């Protein structure tokens, strides 16, 4: 039925798509000399050893200037305004309590947040292929291909993650398509190469059950043109797009990632640490370079220890699989005020944190339902 006569003789020789391998057999992809130790097994992706980042002399930091910073003092008026603003954002909280409670004590705390960012680049290789369209082939005959770490690429802006793929120069070769065995087409799985299928209306009986007239859908033939292949009996190979050949080459995959380490200085208060980790702070210190040195003598000892631990963790995690391009460490002051208040014969506490005066309150005395989450 409307079959292409030129294909009638070849359809019987085509294999079904489902019976063909999805990936080329390993023997098709010969080992390239410089990559024998890198491309192992069935095209397994292997991380490449990084180059050592350049060092720099350790600098003396004027920590005395940081001692001059003081936690911003929150006044009683500011403490009440912050609570009223918080209460107004909650549909189930009443503002009467916030306006009339008696603030008895404001305890100012000094917290610091340490953050380390490590921007790294890692490279892996993998065999891949694409349809060959008779374009020039950049194979080993054109010269030696470079080491993967010698391939020059444009690095994205520092601390912005990205992934890009590149074709390794001089690594290409042309092979017969492993999916269709170089035919460009494969036998249709819907009709098994016949081009027609049993009529769905009469099930091939040419007439519907208990009816004397012939089936109108198939005009009494019992067969319908295969909709999968439009009656051709075969379909264009999806792997080589009908080109019959594939261009195999080594693909370089470069990943730029930003690893993050954060720590908030220790405190014995009831304000959740996850809120303080997201709080807005005042920047006290910033150090950015290809590598940064641990802070060893900051006035808050736990910040110094966090710096040493964060740098050690990032170095250990990235040493065998990535190249560190840039590091940045910062210290921020996080204002935190503990507000003790009295209301209707009971005492309680709420917290004001961050430079934008966010509020965390426990057991607010004027709640009308339990549909709100305290944050």
TrEMBL record:
<feature type="compositionally biased region" description="Acidic residues">
    <location>
        <begin position="1"/>
        <end position="11"/>
    </location>
</feature>
<feature type="region of interest" description="Disordered">
    <location>
        <begin position="1"/>
        <end position="25"/>
    </location>
</feature>
<dbReference type="GO" id="GO:0005737">
    <property type="term" value="C:cytoplasm"/>
</dbReference>
<dbReference type="InterPro" id="IPR036410">
    <property type="entry name" value="HSP_DnaJ_Cys-rich_dom_sf"/>
</dbReference>
<protein>
    <submittedName>
        <fullName>Ssu-2 homolog</fullName>
    </submittedName>
</protein>
<dbReference type="GO" id="GO:0031072">
    <property type="term" value="F:heat shock protein binding"/>
</dbReference>
<dbReference type="GO" id="GO:0042476">
    <property type="term" value="P:odontogenesis"/>
</dbReference>
<dbReference type="InterPro" id="IPR001305">
    <property type="entry name" value="HSP_DnaJ_Cys-rich_dom"/>
</dbReference>
<dbReference type="GO" id="GO:0051082">
    <property type="term" value="F:unfolded protein binding"/>
</dbReference>
<dbReference type="InterPro" id="IPR052789">
    <property type="entry name" value="SSUH2_homolog"/>
</dbReference>
<feature type="compositionally biased region" description="Low complexity">
    <location>
        <begin position="14"/>
        <end position="25"/>
    </location>
</feature>
<dbReference type="GO" id="GO:0005634">
    <property type="term" value="C:nucleus"/>
</dbReference>
